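for the writeup, i need someone to sanity check this before i put it in the appendix. the sequnce is what the collaborator sent (i think, or maybe the updated version? ugh). structure was predicted straight from it, no edits. if anything looks off just tell me and ill rerun, i have time this weekend
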Amino acid sequence: MSPLALRRKMGQLLIAGFTGTQIPVELKSLAKEFGLGGVILFARNIVEPEQIAEVSFEAARLVPDMPVWVSVDQEGGRVARLKAPFTEWPPMATLGRSGDTRLTERFARALAAELKAVGITLDYTPVLDVFTNPKNTVIGDRALGQKADEVARFGSAIIRTLQREGIAACGKHFPGHGDTAADSHHELPLVEHPPERLREVEFVPFTAAIEAGVATIMTAHVFVPSLDDKHPATLSKHVVTDLLRTELKYEGVILSDDLEMKAIAATYAVPSAAVLAIDAGCDGALICSGDHETQWAALEALVHAVEDGTLRLARVEDALTRQRRAKERFLASPVAAHAPTRQALREALGRDDHRAIAGEMARFL
């Protein structure tokens, strides 16, 4: 790959946040210079369904030769960027408590329909962490259950249904964030379990997700000394490549959690963390705050790392291949000529049958 071609493709490794309710000119410039893997939407980007659909429509087309992921954290409960008139879903713990995989499938089908209506193509759900620590407030009721087999069963049902409906799913957070006390948004959590326990509990839902064909898996910003006594999981070759890729035989796209979270950023500059994450085996890096100078610097750092041999070109090409394969799977359908109308959106969102499903889930709060 020529230096120019590499530069034009490196942006495929970035999923970028932005500020405001339209695609900013700085992000358009970045996409033109480097390409772009995807965008991630937060509450700060959202006004109403019509506006989200317009943003999604524009974002997906930022790179002419490769569609861009339009992604969001829409789990339900307290992690839900899309509010009414979208259906407002109870937390995922309600599905595990229900014991009802058919309810879980109905939920995922309705969720997929509303995401598709506004042009979102990748949802960072389900949480596959096993909630074994009552002090773990950052996961808490986001988890599907307290037992590995329960999380595996309900997580797989969500993945299969979302993806059957055309939405790429993301299992998170590998190698497991369920038995931590600290919040990785603010500090680096410690996981003190030995590898044997991790294989018996934490890895079980991820193994099931892999069997279900999950499109993407997100790494956890946690420190697991029994696996790597120097690096957080996201930046660890042993965790990302040796365990997730080789031992668990995962062939999909591995994404980092947001590299601007304090668990990483308190120790590593974001551009350096991006290089380390891709070198560890991640196929994409999330940089979410909307600081486009930082995003640009991260891509420059990746280009320079390949040029000076710090990052193997073969590793980058492998990541690009995995991204392309996933996009061919989920983004290959012909693109609509324009964003949907207001009437079409109002008919798709917050439907009576969707709200009825949410009501059934709420019985298990």
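The chain has one domain: 3-362. Residues 126 and 229 are 28 Å apart (CA to CA).
thx in advance!!
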